[in-house]
Amino acid sequence: MRRSSLLKVASAAAAVTLLAGACGGGGGSAAPTDTGGGGGGGGGGDQTLKIGYVLPETGSLAVLGPPQIQAVKFAISKINDAGGVLGNKVPDPVGGDEADDQAVAAQSADRVLAAGVNVIIGAAASGMSLAIIDKITGAGVAQCSGSNTAPTFTDYNDNGLYFRTAPSDALQGPVLADVIVGDGHSNVAIVARADDYGKGLADATAKALEAAGATVALNETYDTKATNFDATVQKITSVKPDAAVVIAFEEGKQIIKGLIEKGYGPNKIGVYGADGMRIEGLGALVDPSNPGVIAGMKGTAPASADNPTFTKELQAFAPDLKEMQFAPQVYDCVNIMALAAEQAKSVDANDFKDKVDALTRSDNGEKCTDFASCKALIDEGKDIYYEGASGALNFTDAGEPSTATIEIYEYNKKGDFESIGTREAKVATS
Q: At what angle do helices 308-317 and 65-81 cross, to 10 degrees?
């Protein structure tokens, strides 16, 4: 187990800066292929870095699959343009579907591991990563997720092989609470998915709400496989809240619709979501005939640095993309793993795992912002500080960001998604 950081969130004094949302188009071409053999978890004698992924191609998070998968392929293409890792081109990634189903995710992980990969990117959902993390790290393979946010991973016994570029919900929850209280609400109902993501973010938000003087009238979870949410809606309305928080994936549309039908929509009370409900077409999913019915609903999500160059390049690489969420974080996962291998002069994850945290830290070495420039510095024998597409990461010893930019979003009168600002959060040093 890594020596974990103490996650105390500095929330109240969060500075607000306006930031344009980074959402765009995608589809995509594949990375160049090297047909050379690959090193599995132990790398063998071959110094070809093999990368796989387990990401959502179907299921309730399928909307997050294309940007993350294309980000993996785009990162590999850029790495290969710079000469590859340790002089060898990185082959096309070996992929598997997490499908919002633990059994499917486990089967996908088995198939990807059987291909002899050194790194697996994913899963997207915290619950799916928890279903496969022991398989991956137990095989001596590195795992990096660009969207896992459950606090569970901070102290997880991962043999030092699990990393994430998305911040823990221990950072997001207080920002969400700040937004709710700042909007004047004091009696809040929270419902969340009954998984590590939902429970972790719900509890972090509830704790921060209570610390700010608000009453948490309800904090309950619901079955992620449920098809009817009438009972969940009834629980919310029964406590007569002035704000409701729905921590959900796409199934949350049914809860929002139920609240609106009961007179507890965003035109009556504060309605809030989080990253799992940061969906471009959410209004049309709730009510196809009147998307504006969700106007005024707000939420929070891990944000990326305002990086129009990355967005433009990814859209050129994958012109059919319609969502960009977590693409920068996944792109950074791939680059960080590749740079750690370069520094260790080995594609064996057990050799390069100890290089990962330091290369993300601003006090570690010379700043660089892409694989090519970072590799050039490594070739000169220099230590590096990688600040990538998603911005500064500054990993803790637990292999996760110590700082986070949290986006605040809102749905307008047409039911369209708008990014309205950001707030900074960080792991407090004691």
A: 90
